[in-house]
């Protein structure tokens, strides 16, 4: 990796309206990344990046994340072939959240359980007594066993 560095966080005005990229990482050193399809804006997944994962993403043009459960880096698609080619990265006004717009290689899926998007279920808002999930009737793109093997 190169010596890519982010700007130090300056004044509120500089952060909110300036040109310097100075991402604000949380107490665990992470920033949330909402990943969308570059052409359709469909939300594909949400991941977390630390400074090094964000640098790797910018430098390579492929999405890297920090796994909170495994405490390690992961390059999306390294195992599955569903590499996320980054086309644009947006940040919000506080620079504490990202939208990463990608094109997905391979079979075009992002979700490790076989769907194009990790958001394949919706919360049922009609019940007053319980909360359930409803399928959104999107088909699976692949069977995870075929890509990752049996778990």
TrEMBL record:
Signal sequence extent: none
Co-factor note (free text): Binds 1 Mg(2+) ion per subunit.
Enzyme Commission no: 3.5.4.19
Residues annotated as domain Phosphoribosyl-AMP cyclohydrolase: 45-120
NCBIfam families linked to this entry: PRK00051.1
InterPro entries reported for this sequence: PRA-CH, PRib_AMP_CycHydrolase_dom, PRib_AMP_CycHydrolase_sf
One Gene Ontology cellular component: cytoplasm
Listed cofactors: Mg(2+); Zn(2+)
Matching SUPFAM superfamilies: HisI-like
Pfam families listed in its UniProt record: PRA-CH
GO molecular function: magnesium ion binding; phosphoribosyl-AMP cyclohydrolase activity; phosphoribosyl-ATP diphosphatase activity; zinc ion binding
Pathway(s): Amino-acid biosynthesis; L-histidine biosynthesis; L-histidine from 5-phospho-alpha-D-ribose 1-diphosphate: step 2/9; Amino-acid biosynthesis; L-histidine biosynthesis; L-histidine from 5-phospho-alpha-D-ribose 1-diphosphate: step 3/9
Binding site for Mg(2+): 92, 94, 96
Catalysed reactions, as listed in the record: 1-(5-phospho-beta-D-ribosyl)-ATP + H2O = 1-(5-phospho-beta-D-ribosyl)-5'-AMP + diphosphate + H(+); 1-(5-phospho-beta-D-ribosyl)-5'-AMP + H2O = 1-(5-phospho-beta-D-ribosyl)-5-[(5-phospho-beta-D-ribosylamino)methylideneamino]imidazole-4-carboxamide
Quaternary structure annotation from Swiss-Prot or TrEMBL: Homodimer.
Binding site for Zn(2+): 93, 111, 118
Principal location listed in the UniProt entry: cytoplasm
Cellular location(s): Cytoplasm
Protein name per Swiss-Prot or TrEMBL: Phosphoribosyl-AMP cyclohydrolase
Function: Catalyzes the hydrolysis of the adenine ring of phosphoribosyl-AMP.
Entry keyword set: Amino-acid biosynthesis, Cytoplasm, Histidine biosynthesis, Hydrolase, Magnesium, Metal-binding, Zinc
Record-level GO BP terms: L-histidine biosynthetic process
Name of the gene: hisI
